[in-house]
């Protein structure tokens, strides 16, 4: 029963965020009072080209932007501490992402099947989960500069 109530709360939060987001179908501007994007907030929006995230965002949830094929660049705000599992999975045109210096974790398959060519991992990152960069054929994984003390679970 608790699981059903939690799922209902997440669905309500996701809908509230969508209602409080400016969007023309190709651009999303998330309201500044949002601090967490729950799972699947914008997944599957294939026409999406641009995303503007709020400055006080702390967590980008599971599959939040999965299969949004259009964006070429995502600017993650400085306050974000977690990029959850599969957040940008399947964003096939995504070439550039900044990882802010507050991020401590990158979830499994977070950037899988993107076109990222280069990524800088800040010293704050404590773990990069399995297959975080799976299917990123443009990224030379041998050149990933993993910070000391970071638990990198290899693909």
What is the distance, rounded to the nearest whole angstrom, between the alpha carbons of the first and last residues? 36 Å
The total beta strand count reads: 11
Measured on Cα atoms, how large is the radius of gyration?
15 Å
Instruction: Kindly name the structural category.
Output: alpha/beta
Largest sheet: 6 strands, parallel
The overall average pLDDT, rounded, is 87
Q: Give the count of helical stretches.
A: 1
Q: What is the ordering of alpha helices and beta strands?
A: HEEEEEEEEEEE
Beta content comes to: 15-25%
Gross geometry: globular
Major sheet: order of its strands? 3-5-7-9-10-11
Query: Which runs of at least 5 residues are low in confidence (pLDDT < 50)?
Result: none
Indicate the percent of residues in helices: 10-25%
